[in-house]
Structure formats: structure tokens, C-alpha cells
Give the backbone structure.
Amino acid sequence: MALYDKKGPYIIKEEAGVRFYCMCGLSEEAPYCDGSHNGKGTGKTPYIVRYAQEKTVKICGCGQSNTLPYCDGAHNPTKE
Ligand code: FES
């Protein structure tokens, strides 16, 4: 499943460490970058974040969020 094929967010309990979230929508390892943005003219690069401790995050799966890579409820504005 590509990144923006979902109707809702990826809810992930991330361990401490660095994550590379896909920002182009082409990754086959969504929501993480798999390098598919390279050489495809997307002009996109992954969003890189370091979590100092375990954290549960909601990563956008629909591509409509204004706070990418995080979900802002845009997939269903009446429920979030
Ligand atoms: S594969 Fe989408 S940003 Fe890297």
C-alpha cells in the first residue's frame, strides 16, 4: 500500500530513535521512506525526526493533512 492510499492515519508507537517518513507518497514501506523519491522527479525528501523517547504518533495516510507527515484530521474533519 502506498502512503496516501489509506482513508485514515497510521497510528504507530515509535521507539526512541530516528525515523524517515515518506513525503512523496511513492514508498512501498509507508509511512516510512524507502528511497522511491530518488530519481522520480518528485522534488520531495523524507521528513526526518528523532524521538528522544517512546511516542505514539498519527502519520497521515490520506495526503490531505496540512501538518504532514502528521495527521491533522483532514481525512474526516467531522470526527477529529
Ligand atoms: S520514498 Fe517518499 S520521501 Fe522517500
User: Anything to note?
Assistant: The pocket of FE2/S2 (inorganic) cluster is lined by residues 22-24, 26-27, 33-37, 44-46 (CB under 6 Å). Residues 3-59 form one domain. The longest strand covers residues 10-14.
